[in-house]
Amino acid sequence: xxxxxxxxxxxxxxxxxxxxxxxxxxxxxxxxxxxxxxxxxxxxxxxxxxxxxxxxxxxxxxxxxxxxxxxxxxxxxxxxxxxxxxxxxxxxxxxxxxxxxxxxxxxxxxxxxxxxxxxxxxxxxxxxxxxxxxxxxxxxxxxxxxxxxxxxxxxxxxxxxxxxxxxxxxxxxxxxxxxxxxxxxxxxxxxxxxxxxxxxxxxxxxxxxxxxxxxxxxxxxxxxxx
Amino acid sequence: xxxxxxxxxxxxxxxxxxxxxxxxxxxxxxxxxxxxxxxxxxxxxxxxxxxxxxxxxxxxxxxxxxxxxxxxxxxxxxxxxxxxxxxxxxxxxxxxxxxxxxxxxxxxxxxxxxxxxxxxxxxxxxxxxxxxxxxxxxxxxxxxxxxxxxxxxxxxxxxxxxxxxxxxxxxxxxxxxxxxxxxxxxxxxxxxxxxxxxxxxxxxxxxxxxxxxxxxxxxxxxxxxx
Lengths: 226, 226
Known about the structure:
The structure is a homodimer of 226-residue chains. Chain A has 226 residues and is an all-alpha fold. Helix content of chain A is 87%, strand content 0%. Chain A has a single domain (2-225), classed as Phosphate transport system protein phou homolog 2, domain 2 (Methane Monooxygenase Hydroxylase, Chain G, domain 1, Up-down Bundle), CATH 1.20.58. Chain A has helices at 2-35, 39-70, 74-107, 119-139, 142-172, 177-209, 214-225.
């Protein structure tokens, strides 16, 4: 029984990883579409979202079956309920990639706005955080997960700079307001993806260390950013 | 054993409801702070968030204890795992209320921007959706939950109008760009609260009907909004 359960857990983990890779790809494509002004790439993100949604349902079913069949306790139970939450976070990242793709298609109809802001860096950081959260999950690696939390702070700082920069551009050239606002929204979507990766990282730390670091970390981070 | 479990489930439900009421209060206060330009109210939202975070941890613990102790199956198991997800959604609503409160404190340092946009209506709708999601959850009322999904579509439409309106104001009076962008972010935070209420409503429908409506609904809604 225990061996079967371990096998099934392994399968569950593999499925989450594969779902995560699809999400990472969606984020990468949406970012690429933004940086390269490539509407075709953005459309591919819209088409791919359905597959991510189906993965969530499939993994959700499997997780519930595992609990009902094997009645795991303690850390095994926590692992499965973490997976249930994690797929929901991954699905939401997919939704954010869709939001970005929709904005990109809209922005590409306007003349390019090339402010001195580092949106590519935000996009790259968000994508890297998704991948690192997946890896930390697969390896149950609390140290790696902690690095993601630190990256999230950096992300918030760059984002604030982007907002300030875009506001300046819009004030000086009011005709750029529509693109400027759209880029602020995209930047916000990327920040949300980073936040969702951070949620996963917090759960990995909790699972690896068996303590509720979630709000302790949030508190610490809120103190430093308020 | 079954009676004990039912009693414990009832307690779990009560705790979620009380957590939800705190979140609704935070959303109401943040909205009030925005409409009345009341920074003191906004500061109360920041102070209250810690209590919401603690509720999430407490309910999370209790939910896991219930699964490990009573090994529920089928709909009972689904109910508990739904609660685990729901507390996470409620906690995130609380975070959005905090984001709004922070922006309000910032906006209140600038002269008032009174565009013709209906931000109070968005705030009111978001708050009502939080309360209705809670009620639908308590009554396992799929019909009520479906009404929330319809409200979310309305919400998206008003939000788009607010964006357009604020962009116009910023283009005509570039000196209003900082307040305009801040109000767009607030409007976006309120939309996120509505989305989170919609997630809860979708789970209530799933639980009440035993079918996975989540992505069917999303698809239908995406078709109509794309």
